[in-house]
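Board notes (copied after class):
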Amino acid sequence: MTGRIVLTAAEMRAAEEAAITAGTPVGTLMERAGIGAAEAIWRYAGPAPALVLCGPGNNGGDGYVVARELAARGVPVRVAATGEPKSDAARAARASWDGPVEDIADTRSAPLLIDALFGTGLGRPLDSALSERVCDLAGKARIRAAIDLPSGVATDDGAILSPVPDFDLTVTFQTLKPSHLLQPAARHMGRIVVADIGIAAESRLSEIVRPHLETPGPDANKFSRGLVTVIAGGMAGASALAAAAAMKAGAGAVRLQARTFVAGVPAAIIQTPGDPLARLDDSRIGALLLGPGMIADAEGRELLEAVLASGHPLVLDAGALRLVAERGAGDLKDLDRAAILTPHEGEFGDLFPDGAGGSKVERARAAASASGAVIVYKGPDTVIAAPDGRAAILAVGAHWLASAGTGDVLAGTIAACRAAGRDAFEAACAGVWLHARAAELAGPALIADDLVTHLPAALIDCL
């Protein structure tokens, strides 16, 4: 359900210190990093003449090793630096490079630019003259590669501290860092390669990758595969999208409960016009979805209270989130099972107005802890956090998802995954991945209805 782990700058420093304490010299780690980065860059760029920009710290030391290794493969390499290395390991790496070192202010461009100026831990903007120089050299290069992180990017929150050019390749070490996946930094990374340098690392934060979903067994039936009940709001089209998405995302049965018959939904969806709160005592319900198309009025409040009291696994979206914000998200801690909340930026602020600052991951984790719910913090980078501290990031989403109804499709997709019996966090991760994959398959200029159409193909990718 989750892929490569993610470490903050402090966590990475602690992992490195642990490796050094255990007997691996920092120079050995630098050698491994430089050799791994050189291998990745060679595979990507081939023998293109290279200019390696080296900073004064250990990231610059990695750059000297990269230069040495590429030169050993026959690549024409030049090195330009901001000054002399400041650490013993970086000075040793500089000594292993037997070519000249130019001043970055005077160096000329090359077809391949390798940025090894500043990596993990940068906390302030680059000097403006240096920033302009890096952007100028990058603009004249045909291929751009960054070591660890592009210079000018903060490590933990996706912030851009200085202007950052677009890179084609970023090679980082042992684990991803949050800014490889969080916007706006993530859009500048290009392809991301993680080179193994032999450090033991653990984290409760990871990237979201393709889930493995089980095919129905010979004894499966529609209820064992998962019954999703969607409570319709005042704008029936949104509920219809969510119900159709749940059906196409693998639910065994979907029940759409509205006051009147809703046109335009697949015939396979069970409709029960009348009281939208009927049949909530059905023990077979695997997930109950409320919010798409719902209005924050007296009837909406009645629906929310009934759903919260039902005891079923819940997915709360859109209008339901506005009403949860009214009554206080902390009340969700009283539920027997963790609900799944799917706020976008504005809804998140309404739900958690007194939330702590920090990165999007930190805010999502704090919200999950405060509410007892799994938080799907939507956006160009979607962060999912559970009350137990697990968190995951989906870095790449189709920009065409910024259109009406796509959130309703996501809510229905997550509900289908929850009804299949996965825990709330895993269901949220699976649903977010399926939604993003359906968007990839739908292609440019998609609308929400297109996502529904492509969900079965996305599902097949997971079997």
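Comment from the instructor: The chain has 13 helices and 18 strands. The longest strand covers residues 285-290.
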